[in-house]
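ok trying again, last paste got cut off:
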Amino acid sequence: MSRFWRTASSGRQGRRGRRGRGAGRHGRAVLATVVGVTVSVGLVGCASGGVTGPAQVRMDEELSGPIYLGLTDDPVQLRLAGSYEDAFAATGRPVEFRDVDSADRLDMLQAGEVNVVLGCVGELLDVLDPDKGDELRGLYAEAVEEGADPAQWRDITHTTMFSALPTDLQASDPGEAVGCTDDSLPQNTVAVYRKTALERSDRRALNNVAGGVDSSDLAEESEGRD
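nice, full thing came through this time. structure:
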């Protein structure tokens, strides 16, 4: 399986820095909401305290074992798999691939059958909170007509999706690559994982892949497989 990823660097920062005529008042309104949600999520996380008892034992087992990466039959996920495997190898964690159905992947993640699954920010938002997805879709459509900034709306969609995750799950940074075809919302790739399964270095590995693989890399990989 081919691997390709670059350490996230100034390229990602540059994309965030370019603000077009952009989301305008709609983007600012959604951003204000997103900031409030993010602060609330952060405060809940800080107040959760330490883990003890059987939960601590299970967490220790997860952290000492391999990463179980759940993959659907989506070609983009299959192309990304090797990059995640390499990134985790750098942290000393072996990776085992497990087949998952797209509709069941989050349930399998919460059940501990896998540690990490992949998806797209807009697609996952529709799964987690369809009403919020529809609301954001309407705002995004208006912003696109005004010349929306893709990086800003990628981050808005990612943060809205993040806030809809169950409390035992977390998500990586949004990727540079676009992994789903529904363009009514930003569809940048993202990894969702069990909080108890990854060390800080493992989470950094996920973010390195997010910032180091873009859509052109995926296209080149696809051509190489033909």
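cool. Strands lie at 67-71, 95-99, 116-120, 169-171, 189-194. The chain has one domain: 21-38+69-225.
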